[in-house]
Structure formats: C-alpha cells, structure tokens
From TrEMBL:
Signal peptide: none
Pfam families to which the protein is assigned, alphabetical: p450
Species of origin: Rhododendron simsii (Sims's rhododendron)
Claim: Transmembrane helix is one of the keywords in the record: yes
Family annotation (PANTHER family): CYTOCHROME P450
Keyword Coiled coil: no
Chain sites annotated for binding heme: C446
SUPFAM superfamilies, A to Z: Cytochrome P450
GO molecular function: heme binding; iron ion binding; monooxygenase activity; oxidoreductase activity, acting on paired donors, with incorporation or reduction of molecular oxygen
Taxonomic path: Eukaryota, Viridiplantae, Streptophyta, Embryophyta, Tracheophyta
Family classification: Belongs to the cytochrome P450 family.
UniProt-recorded name of the protein: Cytochrome P450
Record key words, sorted: Heme, Iron, Membrane, Metal-binding, Oxidoreductase, Transmembrane, Transmembrane helix
Source superkingdom: Eukaryota
Length: 501
C-alpha cells in the first residue's frame, strides 16, 4: 500500500532530478567558462591585447587582417604575439620555411583545428596529421599528378563556362539597373565544378531556375556551421552545445548525416555502373580503397578545399582588374596574340603561353590571397629563425595576406598591383613558395594548385574577352567577413556589358 509519504516522495522525484540536473549543468558551464577565461589570459594588458579585446583598431583599419599587417610591418622581425590568444603570427619567409618545411613534424595542424572540422571531414586528408595524412597524400598526389585527371578537370571547367557561366552573363548584359553579385556567381560556379570533379555529378547551382538538391543544401549548411565553430569565442561553447545536441550543433549533426548518407548512395550507384569507366575522384579512390566511410571522408576534404578558394581568388582578381583597366587591356592583347580573337576558350597549350595572364593571377592573389592566414600548433618548445621563442602548445600562424604587403619581401611598391613584377623578358618567373605561401608550401602544399590555376585562367579569359565587367561601387574598400576563406562582406556587385567585337 502506498503511504502519503511515498506518494509525496515520488511526486518530488522528477522535480529533484530536474533541480539536480539544472544545478550540475549550470555548475559545469560556469566552471568551463572560468576555465576558458583563464586560458584566454584576459589579464594581459599590453597595448596589442587591449586593442584586440576592445577592437579599438577598427576605426582605423577595414579588416583585422589589415591591422595585423600594420603590426607585422612595424615589428623588426615581422613576427608578433597576441597573448590573449596564445598566438604567434609571422610574415617572415624564413620562419614560414621553418614551420612548413624544415620543422614540419613539430608543427602539425593539431587537435584544436581537427576538432573544428572533424565531424564533417572525419579522417579526410585536409583534417589529419601523421601516418593517415601521409598515406592519403601519397595516394592523392599520384591521382592529382596524372594527365588524365587534369584533362578531366579542364573538360568540366570548359563545359561549365560554356553551358552556364557565359549564358548567365549574357542574360544580364546591358540590362538597365541589372547588378550581379560576382562573388555569389563564382561561389556557385566553383561549387558545380569541384562537385563534378569529386562526384561525377553536376549539382547545377548556377542554373538559377533549378531547385537546389538536398545534398548541396546539407553540404552548404554543414560547411558553414563547421566554419562557424572556429569563430566562437571559445571551443567550449560549441563543444557543450554538441554534447547537449542543441542549436547550431543539432543542425550541423543532421546536415552531416544527410551529406554522408547521400554520398553513400552515390557510391552504391557508382558500384553498379562500374568504377573503372569513370574519371571522378570518388571512382578513382573506390578502385584503390575498400573502406566506404574513409573514401567519403577523403572526397569531402577535396570538396571543401576546392570550393570557396577558387571563388575567392576570382572575386579578388575581378576586383583588382576593374581598378586597373590597363591590365585588362594587356590580358586581351595577349589573348588575341596567342589565340584567334573570335575563339572563346583557350586550349591547355595556349594557356601555357599566356605569361601575362599568369602574372596577373599571381599578383592579385599576392594582395588578395583566398586563404588569408593558416595556423599550426607547436608540439615541442622551439626557436624560430628570427629568434622568437615558441613554447609548446602555441598556435602559430603564417599570414599570406600580410606577407603580400611586406616591404622587406616585395619592396617599397608592395601595395601596388603590378603583374610585371612576376615577368622577366616577358616570361613568368615564380618566387620561393615560402615568400608567397598562397597555396601553402612544403610537404603539405595545396594538391589542387594546378587545377585551380587552370580553372581561374579559363574563367578570366572567357569573361574578359567577351564582357566589360565593372564593379558597381569601386570607391568602397573590400571588407572581409570572418571565415576560413576570404569572403567579401556584402558580395561584389558588378555591372556587365557584352563587348562589341
Ligand atoms: C585558388 C585556389 C586555391 C588556393 C588558394 C588553395 C590554397 C590551399 C592552402 C593554403 C592549403 C593548406 C591548408 C591547410 O593545410 O590548412 C590547401 C590545401 C589543400 N588544397 Fe588547396 N587551394 C586552392 C584550390 C584547391 C582546389 C581546386 C583543390 C582540389 C581540386 C584543392 C585541394 C587541396 C587539398 C586536398 C589540400 C590538402 C593538402 C594536404 O593537407 O596535404 N585546393 N590549399
């Protein structure tokens, strides 16, 4: 028989449990916050840390990267340390070579970075260190170095330009008051291209009339939310949300599930038609690896690495070009000289002959690198070539955006856009990759560099040849959003006019 007391105590149980749970949760969150605050060293009161915390740099500089550039230029070693972030930042080529090559093993991506993209990228090449990275790098280098994959990529790029990009530009050309966001167009273009290259299917996001597929939407959400983890004040915030499966973390989990299960479906269909007849990355990796989840991780790494980088590079290129009509004119002259003026698409051989175009591309990425900064984590205490001491556990960042603006590296005209600085007797001459680490450098240099340049040059040639593209608000400086890849806040609105030839 139930006594009054037992009924009372039973009715109290859920309340007690709730109170206990709430107390434990609040206590845990509070302790974690205290721990985070202690890690952030908010007590550091040096001028740089004060300015970082209060954002007092912002009235004077358009972007955080411009403020860092200013600090790095002022520093005698071109290296600075932000105490509140435990982050050493360098724009010194000798230091960059030390981190990316000479002491490569001591500067892995590290756990903090892998955790951010870990759920989406799993064990994919972009997100791992050590033996797993070495294995994938070897295999992927063999594939990416083959002539057949380059011509496969080139065919995709040409077909996307002809079937989607040019028709879209023609449709808005000359339209009164018609403004196109060039950044968004390039984001869609580069997504379609890298998706076809990776999975052998065209998501057609440039065909504005078609609905966006579930895969594309889920991938978009998953990559945005993963990148947003990096922007949160402390990793503990997203980690707690993940454990509790709430808010953005719940959404992220769902979208990753959609991406992985649709990728699995594509694999199963591919198996039915036979992988040996296909050229895409997925089919290529399926012929040499047996683990489905691992293959998906690898291919998704490529998708992420090759997606917004190319779009960002093209956006920066057309921005500087619209400010330098003399460079645009020289590109057109070179293109008319190398190929027949009425032809729209250059062949691979013709593109190789266009040294001025290559120089203009490199020069625009010197000033507007798609990856503005990139970080590693120091494993063991170390001393950099400029004698900066780096304690174990420090985040160390090389900063291509600032490096492109270092007088010591590029001379007093470092802020000027001058493709000629890359040419000797009309021939393109590359510089040390540690001076220009736009594609990173050393053993982990970008695997898609050649394909990216091919894509960018093809797009630039076909658009510059056929259209006049003018930025709608040329007087406004570029302001970037906090993101893994340089993304212009508000996009790049342009006005398009088909040229009379
Ligand atoms: C202008 C365009 C591009 C730029 C500026 C660029 C830049 C970079 C940078 C800076 C890294 C090093 C990132 C890090 O380790 O944190 C990287 C890695 C990588 N990139 Fe690119 N990338 C571009 C296009 C592409 C494309 C189109 C692909 C694929 C076809 C690609 C595939 C990769 C891969 C797989 C890695 C990882 C390499 C490794 O960890 O060993 N990239 N890229």
């Amino acid at each position: 028989m139930e006594t009054g007391y037992s009924v009372f105590s039973q009715s109290l149980q859920p309340t007690c449990c709730f109170l206990f749970f709430s107390f434990t949760l609040s206590f845990t969150i509070f302790s974690l916050l205290l721990f985070t605050l202690s890690l952030l060293k908010p007590h550091c009161d040096c001028e740089i840390c004060r300015s970082y915390r209060s954002r007092s740099w912002s009235p004077e500089f358009d972007n955080l990267a411009d403020w860092y550039t200013h600090l790095l230029r002022k520093s005698p070693t071109n290296t600075i340390h932000i105490h509140v972030l435990n982050n050493t930042i360098t724009a010194n080529p000798e230091n960059v070579e030390h981190i990316l090559k000479t002491q490569f093993e001591n500067y892995p991506k590290g756990r903090p970075f892998s955790a951010i993209l870990g759920d989406l990228l799993g064990k994919g090449i972009f997100n791992v260190d050590g033996d797993s990275w070495k294995f994938q790098r070897k295999m992927a280098s063999l594939e990416m170095g083959s002539i057949s994959i380059r011509s496969y990529a080139f065919d995709i790029v040409r077909s996307e330009i002809q079937s989607n990009l040019i028709p879209l530009f023609s449709s808005v050309s000359g339209e009164k008051d018609s403004v196109l966001d060039l950044q968004q167009v390039f984001q869609r273009f580069s997504f379609d291209t890298i998706f076809r290259f990776s999975f052998g299917l065209d998501p057609n996001t440039l065909q504005l009339s078609l609905p966006i597929s579930d895969f594309v939407m889920a991938f978009d959400v998953a990559s945005k939310l993963s990148a947003e983890r990096a922007m949160s004040v402390s990793p503990l915030i997203w980690k707690v949300k993940k454990v509790l499966n709430i808010g953005s973390e719940k959404k992220l989990k769902k979208s990753i599930e959609v991406v992985k299960s649709l990728a699995q479906e594509v694999m199963e269909n591919r198996r039915k038609i036979g992988v040996s007849t296909q050229n895409d990355l997925l089919s290529r990796f399926m012929s040499s690896i047996n683990d489905d989840a691992y293959i998906i991780d690898i291919v998704i790494s490529f998708l992420l690495a090759g997606r917004d980088t190319v779009a960002s590079a093209l956006t920066g290129f057309f921005w500087v070009l619209s400010q330098h009509p003399e460079v645009e004119k020289s590109i057109r002259e070179e293109s008319d000289r190398v190929m027949c003026p009425t032809k729209e698409l250059a062949s691979l051989e013709q593109m190789r002959e266009m040294h001025y175009l290559q120089a203009a591309m490199y020069e625009s990425m010197r000033l507007y690198p798609p990856v503005q900064f990139d970080s590693k984590f120091c494993q063991e205490d170390d001393i950099l070539p400029d004698y900066t001491f780096v304690p174990k556990g420090t985040r160390i960042t090389y900063h291509p955006y600032a490096m492109g603006r270092m007088e010591r590296v590029w001379g007093p005209d470092c802020f000027d856009f001058k493709p000629e600085r890359w040419l000797q007797g009309g021939v393109f001459c590359p510089v040390s990759p540690f001076k220009y680490p736009v594609f990173q450098a050393g053993p982990r240099v970008c695997l898609g560099k050649e394909i990216a340049l091919l894509e960018m040059k093809s797009v630039a040639l076909s658009l510059v040849g056929r259209f006049d593209i003018r930025v709608a608000t040329p007087e406004k400086a570029l302001r970037f959003m906090p993101s893994l890849t340089a993304t212009v806040r508000g996009g790049l609105p342009v006005i398009i006019q088909e040229r009379k030839r």
